[in-house]
Every structure is written in structure tokens, then in C-alpha cells.
Amino acid sequence: MNMEYDVVIIGAGLSGIGMACQLMQQSPNKSFTILERRQSLGGTWDLFRYPGIRSDSDVISFGFKFSPWNSDKVLAEGESIKQYLQETAQKFGVDKKITYGIKIISANFSTETNRWTIEAIDEATGEACQFTCNYLVTATGYYNHDQGYTPKFEGVEKFKGLFVHPQHWPENLDYNNKRVVVIGSGATAVTLIPAMANDTAHITMLQRSPSYVINVPNTDKLVDACRKVLSEELVYKIFRKRNIFMQRGIYKLARRFPKQMRSFLLSGAQKALGEQYDMSHFTPKYMPWDERLCAIPDNDLFGVIRQGKASVVTDEIERITETGILLKSGETLEADIIVTATGLELQMLGGIQLSVDDTQVKFNEKLSYKGTLIEDVPNFAYLFGYTNAPWTLKIDLSCDYICRLIKELDVRQMASVKAVAPKDENTGNSIIHGLQSGYVQRGEYVMPRQGKSTEWFVSHNFEKDSEMLSQPIESQHLVWNATAQQAKAKGKPKAA
């Protein structure tokens, strides 16, 4: 199978669907396909199936700017997110543009033909297939979908119970009246605990160090009231701006007044847990937003702890035993099921080998341009959302920029465009530099680098990105190339 397109998008998750919808709106005559390895769209929200899975961003700002999300909850559950993506894909007709079951092996750009050649395998049949395009966009996320991260625990082979990683949750896992220990203190752990607590004999969150946990009311009465008198589109537009403003405000306050924000978060947790609760389990050593805050709806985590259905232990693991976990303090946690909510394994492009003229592109040595293009790689963009705000906010901005860039190629009658960095621009820092999360610290070496100046610096700042990515395409950092025939017709050599 060999298929030719103007644009190929890799990945049918949140980012890939967003890119396809914007491309349909801005360049309806462009031929494109979305190549997806799984048998369904959704990406993260199709892969993860653990109890209670949800977004920790509110649905209004987590949804696309062009597709109102009508939900009566503030934090959307995984199944609701997938349904929203399906409905959006259908609304814009991109559901018919997805090719499922395709594992991408490699993609090579030829500067002679100005085309990408994508080598892939149809995993159902084992048949090799090939796709070619002028412009390639990867929407593969930032982690390895095949495996999550699990530390090497001594004695794990002796454990007689069940070991589970949330990334590969067993279908119909029976945890009724079982003793469960969840290792971890991040977003996954704080989601699992309340979702499982009412059915387990007891569930324990075992953490090496605490995270900040913030309560979010899971209904917005003002939004519900406005829906009764205003159109859904207008309500979505108004409250999306409000929610983004509030989120950015909280983040800025946390960075400017970290001690005060720390006090606010800890006092809120203490109030929900009760005055007698030992707050050392929810008092991180770092300041707010050095790592992402863990949002919980309607104090659900604090509620099950206060009721005695769940508990938190802050300690380190000595080894795994036949019946549970021996801690360094000497305490033993008995368990029938151990859940390792220990994070992700970072990976760029889903493991795809990318090359230009058959020379491999080493992403961790290349600079990111406007957080969207990669230095010296023609007709290529990658989608990477925010780590300190709803992922989709950055995706919306990047997709709009990519669509305008593709249109500019036609306007200029050029065959390719690439970003070229100034000398000594590279700072050596990755695009997620500064985050303290364990999975970031372990894996940021695989990420692209960032530079010093505005267009090469990844700010993770919605206001700055909104301004930068909406500016005219023209830039001294972009090099446009004509085809050999075009260059000859104009009487000048083809650009390098």
C-alpha cells in the first residue's frame, strides 16, 4: 500500500484530532490522513482504563476553542473526554480521515523531492505500507505507549499478589474487599484512591514524598445558570476566557508568592482532612508549581481518608515481600494488589526514527522553534501542550500556526520551509526544563532543546505564546526553498 497526501498527521489523540479539525477549516482542499496505531481514536484517553481516570483540567478550557464542550462536570472523566473527541471528529469530518492499526517505523524527508516518505506496518496483517506527503505533523504525545515506568523493586518476584501498572490496567480487575497499596503521589494515585476506596478492604497511598493537592468543585453553578439563558457557544466562549484567566492567575500567584500559595493549599487540605490529621503527608518539600498541582473534585480524596477507607503512608520501600511491602522504617504494608502509579517513560515521536536525506535527526540535540517546529527539519511540526495549564491551549495555538505556515508555502509557491537557529542559540536545556517531577527528571534528556531568544525559548506561558504564534509567519529564522524547477525558472540556484 502506497498512499500520497499533502499532509500526514501521526496520532489520533487530542492533538491529532485538533490539528485535523483546524486543517479542515483553514485548508479544506488539502488532502490528509491521520495515522493511528490503536484501533480507536483518543490517544491517552483510549489507552488508560484505570478506575476514575479523568483530566485535572476543567472541561471548558481543556476543550478545543472551536468546539464547545457541553458538560455538567468541571473535571471530565476519561470516557467523557473520548466521547468529546469522537463527536468533534465527526462534526468536522475528520473521523473519515483516520487510518487505524498503523505502526510507524520511520519517516525520511528528501530535499530533492521535498516529500516525506513514511514507512509503516499494518499491525493486523503484518503488511508493510508506505505513505508520502509534503508536510508531516506528529501528534504522538511525550511518553511511551507500550510501557510505563516501574522502578526496580527488590523482591518483586516473590510477591504472591497482583502487580499492576495503571497504563495497562487489567480488564475486569477484581479488587473487591482486597488490600490495595498504590505506590505514588501524583495525579494517577490521587485519582485511583477515591475511585477504589469504597470497594476495597482498605487502600493505602504509599509515597516517597508528598504532592500538593487542590480541591476543585466539580459543578459550576454560574455556568449552569448561564446555559439556561445564553447559547452554548456564547457560554463556552465567556467561561473559557474566565477559566483560562483564573488558571493563569493562580499559576502566576504561586510563582510570585510561593509561601502564601503554599500556606493556602496546606490550610485547605488541613480543613478537609480534619484538624487532627498529620499534615506531613500532604506537605511537599518544594514550592507550588515546581511540580504540577494534583486537582481533586469535591475533596474526594480527602473524604475517603477522613472516613478511614484510605490512608497515606510516607516512607521508602526496603523490598517487596510475599505478602506486601517492607518499608525502610520497618513497617510492613500487607497487600493483595500493588499498583505502581510511578509515572511515565518519556519518548519523542512515539519512537519513530526521523531523518532528512537519510541522516537521522537527533531530537535531543535540536532546538524547538516556537515550541512547534524543529531546527533544520523541513516541512515538519510536532505538537506538545502545556505542563502548567490545560494541554489543549497550546495545541490550539500550535495547530493554527502550522495551518498558516502550510498556507504560506502555497502563497509563496515554495516547496519547503525549515527553521534555522542562530549561532550559540542553544542553552542546553530541554523544552521541559525546570519541572521537578520524577518522570521529567528521568527522561528529559530525550526532549528537544530550547534557546535564549523569544522564538527559540519555550516559555510555557499562554499569553506569550498567544502573541508569538499569532504574529505574521515571516521570520528571519525561517528558510524557504523552491523546487529545482522553480528555482531554475527564476534564474537562481535552489536554496540550501
Account of the 3D structure:
The protein is α/β, with parallel strands linked by helices and 496 residues long. It has 2 domains: 289 residues, FAD/NAD(P)-binding domain, CATH 3.50.50; 149 residues, FAD/NAD(P)-binding domain, CATH 3.50.50. Helix content is 29%, strand content 25%. Strands 1, 2, 5, 6, 7, 8, 19, 20 and 23 form a 9-stranded mixed sheet that branches. The radius of gyration is 24 Å and the shape is globular. The chain starts with a strand and ends in a 7-residue tail after the last helix.
Key words describing this protein structure:
27 strands, globular, 496 residues, 5-stranded parallel β-sheet, alpha/beta, disordered C terminus, FAD/NAD(P)-binding domain, 13 helices, single chain
Roughly what is the average pLDDT, rounded to an integer?
Answer: 94
Number of domains: 2
The first-to-last residue Cα distance is: 32 Å
| CATH topology term of the largest domain | FAD/NAD(P)-binding domain
| Strand segment count | 27
Strand content: 25-35%
Low-confidence parts, pLDDT < 50 over ≥5 residues?
Answer: 492-496
Tally of individual helices: 13
Helix-and-strand structural type: alpha/beta
CATH homologous superfamily of the largest domain? FAD/NAD(P)-binding domain
Q: Main β-sheet, in a few words?
A: 9 strands, mixed
User: From the alpha-carbon coordinates, what is the Rg to the nearest angstrom?
Assistant: 24 Å
Helix-residue proportion:
25-40%
CATH class group of the largest domain? Alpha Beta
How does CATH name the architecture of the largest domain? Answer: 3-Layer(bba) Sandwich
Task: Give the CA-based shape.
Answer: globular
